[in-house]
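Incident review: delayed structure delivery

Summary: a single-chain prediction request sat in the queue longer than the usual turnaround. Root cause was a stuck worker, restarted by the on-call engineer. No data loss occurred. The affected request and its eventual output are reproduced below so the record is complete for anyone auditing the incident later.

Affected input:
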Amino acid sequence: MEHTATQERAARAFEHSATTLSDTTATYLDVNQRMIGDLTELSVRAAKENARLVAELQIAAIDALHESQAAVLRWQAMWPDALTDPLRWHQTALAEMAASAQRTISLAGAGARVVMQAADRMQAAAVDTGRRVRDIVEGSGASLRRSAGG
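Output delivered after worker restart:
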């Protein structure tokens, strides 16, 4: 009779351990699945943001190319004045250089704004994902304590 009672206690202890282990494993699997989902979402958002950034930078590069071609045409149109009215040509050339410098700075600023906006969007996405991962980890601690029975 003593032998059977010991076996039953051992069986109950084993069953309790197996249940606790099963609950703990299920909790870890759930936590891993949720974290992988959030991190995958962040990776997808980063890839989309990267594609968007490349497209916007290409548009800015095309605008800069268009502006440089227009500048070449403007300079070509000024050459006849260089021979007939050098003072007027000098004045026009200086005005064109100042305007070209201003357009160049404007185009560079547009490119910088595009990069900063992309960085801001990625930072917001990373902060949001970090918050969700923190919430998952904090929630998993409570779940693990419950599954451990205390």
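Verification: The radius of gyration is 34 Å.
Action items: add queue-age alerting; document worker restart procedure.
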